[in-house]
Structures are given as C-alpha cells and as structure tokens.
Design brief:
183 residues, Nucleotidyltransferase, domain 5, two-stranded antiparallel ribbon, 30% helix, globular
C-alpha cells in the first residue's frame, strides 16, 4: 500500500481576515521515490484560521491517490479532535452541535469526511511553532498562500526593518509554488 506523510497548517491575519494554508506531502515507499516531497499552498481574501486549517487537510488528502495510507500531522486541535470524535455526533444530529446549533464550517467538515474515506488516515497532533521542520514548512507555505491577499502597507519586522507587503496582482509578488506531480 502507498504511504504518505502529510503535514498541514493554516494561517490567518486577523480572524477573520486574509488567510492561507499549506501542506507538505512526503512519499514513503520501498522504491526509488521514497522521501519525495510535494508542497501545496493557497489562500483566500476573507476567511478564518479554522477554515484554513480544514482546507489544508482537505487539500492534502485530495492531492493523494485514492487508497493511500496517510499519516496526517496537524497543529490544530480543532481539526484533529473534530475529525477524530466530534464529527460522529454532528452527523448523527444532522450537522448540529450538542446545543442544536448549526456546525460551523459544516461544508468543509463534510469535504474532509469525504476525502478521508478514500484513504486510510491516521491523525496526529503536533505542537505548532515548536521547531518541527515539516510543521514549520507547512506554516511557511500557509503564510506564502496568504501573502497575495494581504493589503499593501508597511509593517515593522522583528529586526526593525520595514517590509512592504505586495498587493494581489502585483508583478513582484510571486504566486505560491504548486506541483503538478501526483502521489
């Protein structure tokens, strides 16, 4: 069986606000492509961090061939707890919470549920911003995915230097790197 490690993350500037998602996929096999990496990212102009976390996981699962064993790593307790437990009750209750309120982001939860059913997924939580290389890379990809949607303006960097943010459509802004390779 094919095996893939997927590391996902979402980011948002303001909540809601411009956001991005990123995913690092690593093939695990006995063949010559063992360790091959594919990176994905994207973003939206107005979203929430939870939506970007869910989108990262959905995009990672959808980028992998059906029937693959996937170890999916997320730093989002919302995603891991939701898909590992809460979703069963939501489905039983017609996509309502225990207090009978509509589940937030139900369309994304439904897409994640559908995507995971095509694979054998093992869910893992990792602490964010704790030096885990693949999680840090997924975070970097998420921030890159968000960048085109942030408004132009100067911000003060940690080292005291001014940084100018690019406007969407600005020729100097690089689009997120996307691979056409399929795992």
């Amino acid at each position: 069986m094919r095996r893939v490690e997927a590391y996902t993350d979402g980011a948002c500037s303001g909540n809601p606000g411009p956001g991005g998602w990123g995913a690092v996929l690593r093939l695990r096999s006995d063949g010559p492509n063992d360790g091959a990496v594919r990176e994905l990212s994207g973003g939206e102009a107005m979203t929430t961090n939870n939506r970007m976390e869910l989108t990262a996981a959905i995009s990672a699962l959808n980028a992998v061939k059906d029937g693959t064993a996937i170890d999916l790593y997320t730093d989002s307790s919302y995603v891991k707890d939701g898909i590992s437990g809460w979703i069963q009750g939501w489905k039983r209750n017609g996509w309502k919470t225990a207090d009978r309120k509509p589940v937030k982001n139900a369309e994304l939860w439904q897409a994640l549920d559908e995507a995971r059913q095509r694979h054998q997924v093992t869910w893992h939580w990792v602490k964010g911003h704790a030096g885990h290389p693949e999680n840090e890379r997924a975070d970097e990809l998420a921030r890159q995915g968000m960048a085109p949607f942030k408004k132009a303006g100067k911000v003060e960097a940690a080292d005291g230097m001014s940084v100018v943010r690019a406007k969407p459509g600005n020729a100097s802004a690089k689009p997120p790197r996307r691979s056409t390779q399929s795992y």
